[in-house]
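Work Package 4 report. The design task specified in the project plan requires that, given a folded chain encoded as structure tokens, an amino acid be chosen for each position. We show below one input record used in the internal validation round.
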């Protein structure tokens, strides 16, 4: 079968060399990467990934000067966040490409070719890249010893050519990770996502929709020709949109095979939150779980009734069911 956040605020940025129990900041960040921010599905601050939170009381009005100051600070935070996001995505792609040669990857290479003048944020960048690799691409970033700044990637996925031999997406793999990312975006956006939002999410992951990717092939073709045709995704034009826009929603196969609670759990795990952090989606997922349980109970009851009917028929005819 098939298999990230409230992130309006910037993640906590740890400077290189921070200590925790004798470990340097980089080792700490990797060892505690379950606590690092990982905004794979993150929207710009303020959008809350479509998490439909209940409205609270209105904030008191600010003086114009104070409002301008807050707006300038928020704009600076957004720029810093977007730059950090781009660096993480670039590092993920750099590590994936380097791993094709199966040679260890050094921290100095990461800084030289990707991180650059954000060297002080290396622990945070590397930890977030490790999260992306783990949850989306199925790779573990392993440091070769606590004192060494050398890494390897451990591939926990089937080779792509083996996956292509499968009749569907069952069993896992990079395509499954991509599909779950899209389903998560759709769910957190209110059960539909504009086509442009899906392509933007891929770009934030460092994946260009129309450019060949060694794990996904051509991502746009994979989505439009495989996911849509196999009914994992539905694709339609947005009614009355001008200029015309199209959107994705869950397809009937996803509705049958994938529970909303599992997708919400996936998003929550990547955000380091509990599913209850998004109350509207959580209630919807609970209702979906209850519907699935009732449908399963009805199916089991129907099977038992048919079995009893067959048994009675054989008894009436005097035929042993064995």
């Amino acid at each position: 079968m098939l298999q990230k956040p409230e992130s309006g605020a910037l993640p906590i940025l740890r400077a290189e060399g921070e200590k925790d129990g004798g470990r340097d900041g980089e080792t700490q960040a990797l060892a505690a990467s379950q606590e690092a921010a990982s905004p794979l599905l993150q929207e710009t601050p303020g959008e809350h990934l479509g998490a439909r939170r209940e409205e609270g009381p209105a904030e008191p009005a600010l003086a114009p000067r104070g409002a301008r100051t807050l707006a300038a600070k928020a704009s600076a935070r957004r720029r810093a966040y977007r730059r950090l996001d781009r660096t993480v995505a670039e590092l993920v792609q750099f590590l994936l490409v380097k791993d094709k040669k199966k040679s260890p990857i050094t921290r100095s290479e990461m800084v030289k070719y990707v991180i650059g003048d954000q060297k002080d944020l290396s622990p945070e960048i590397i930890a977030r890249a490790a999260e992306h690799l783990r949850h989306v691409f199925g790779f573990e970033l392993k440091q070769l010893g606590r004192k060494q700044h050398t890494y390897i990637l451990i591939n926990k996925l089937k080779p792509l050519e083996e996956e292509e031999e499968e009749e569907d997406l069952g069993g896992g793999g990079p395509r499954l990770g991509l599909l779950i990312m899209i389903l998560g975006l759709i769910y957190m956006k209110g059960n539909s996502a504009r086509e442009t939002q899906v392509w933007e999410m891929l770009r934030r992951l460092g994946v260009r929709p129309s450019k060949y990717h060694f794990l996904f092939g051509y991502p746009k073709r994979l989505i439009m020709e495989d996911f849509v045709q196999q009914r994992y995704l539905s694709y339609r034009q947005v009614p009355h949109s001008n200029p015309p826009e199209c959107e994705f929603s869950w397809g009937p196969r996803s509705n049958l095979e994938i529970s909303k609670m599992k997708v919400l759990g996936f998003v929550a795990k990547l955000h380091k939150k509990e599913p209850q952090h998004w109350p509207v989606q959580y209630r919807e997922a609970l209702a979906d779980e209850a519907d699935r349980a009732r449908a399963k109970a009805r199916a089991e009851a129907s099977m038992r009734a048919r079995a009893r009917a067959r048994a009675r028929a054989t008894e009436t005819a005097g035929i042993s069911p064995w």
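The longest helix spans residues 279-316. Validation will be extended to a larger panel in the next phase.
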